[in-house]
Design goal:
AAA_dom; 8-stranded mixed β-sheet; P-loop_NTPase; 16% strand; Rossmann fold; ParA family protein
């Protein structure tokens, strides 16, 4: 059974892409077959995974066409890049900026526009255990397309006030979309990230999030600030067991991935 997850927030720069890719990478190490779909024209997720291929695995990325070309040709497999064992990528490129116009030109109403991507990906994604959708931080057709195609949403919450407001607006939009389209999608949890140890402001924002969303909707694991995560953007995702900083990062995400699986099992057990 395939589980599709969107990580989101309506504020940019909250660590959404980094956490999406680290979860995907970690699950692939746990012998889960994982697909990352970069549905963001900025292509930050694609850049990171291609850097991982080139710098870490010494592999030259090869693919036949961009994701947007695959969308227009209705054939996702033509755009797939095999990043590493158990981890594939549908890569973004600048031409993906035409996605919204493509939807407006080909479909006459919001329902058809917002459900197109789910139909495009639905059969192809069945060969994976997990599919992660990385999207822009705006309210647009990229966001709505991803949410319609998802089983779960993780709200990535940088521990600052603007990110909390963005999270609240995101959850509100999720609930509205769920009601409009009768979606079977659940909030997997709120994930606090980029926390500074001992910062009173960070702790205050986390408490405000608990008050707003409820403690049960908060991930038990919080992601602290780690310089190695920033380094990955330049080097690709390194995983050197002899490097204490690499080990620390991967141990954190191993624990988080286990909590993601546990939360999904709770939801599935209740259905």
């Amino acid at each position: 059974m395939t589980t599709t997850i969107t990580c989101g927030n309506f504020k940019g720069g909250v660590g959404k892409t980094s956490n999406t890719l680290m979860l995907a990478y970690t699950l692939s190490k746990m012998n889960k077959k994982v697909l990352v779909v970069d549905l963001d024209p900025q292509a930050n997720g694609t850049d990171l995974l291609l850097a991982t291929m080139t710098n870490v695995y010494q592999q030259k990325p090869e693919f036949k066409e961009t994701l947007f070309e695959a969308i227009k040709n209705n054939n996702p497999k033509e755009a797939v890049i095999h990043v590493k064992p158990n981890l594939d990528l549908l890569p973004s490129y600048s031409d993906l900026q035409g996605f919204e116009k493509f939807l407006y030109d080909n479909f006459s109403n919001d329902f058809e526009q917002d459900h197109f991507f789910n139909k495009f990906i639905s059969e192809f994604k069945q060969q994976y255990d997990y599919v992660f959708l990385d999207i822009p931080p705006q309210l647009n057709k990229f966001t709505d397309s991803a949410l319609v195609a998802s089983d779960y949403v993780i709200i990535v919450l940088q521990t600052q006030e603007r990110a909390l407001k963005g999270a609240e607006k995101y959850v509100q939009h999720l609930l509205e979309l769920q009601e409009d389209y009768d979606l079977n999608i659940d909030l997997l949890g709120i994930l606090p990230v980029l926390q500074q140890n001992g910062s009173e402001l960070d702790l205050d924002v986390v408490q405000d999030a608990i008050d707003s969303f409820g403690k049960s909707n908060m991930f038990n694991n919080h992601i602290k600030q780690m310089a190695r995560l920033k380094r990955f953007d330049r080097t690709g995702i390194t995983d050197n067991v002899k490097d204490v900083n690499d080990r620390r990062v991967h141990d954190v995400y191993q624990t988080l991935a286990e909590e993601v699986i546990e939360r999904i099992n709770i939801f599935e057990g209740g259905k």
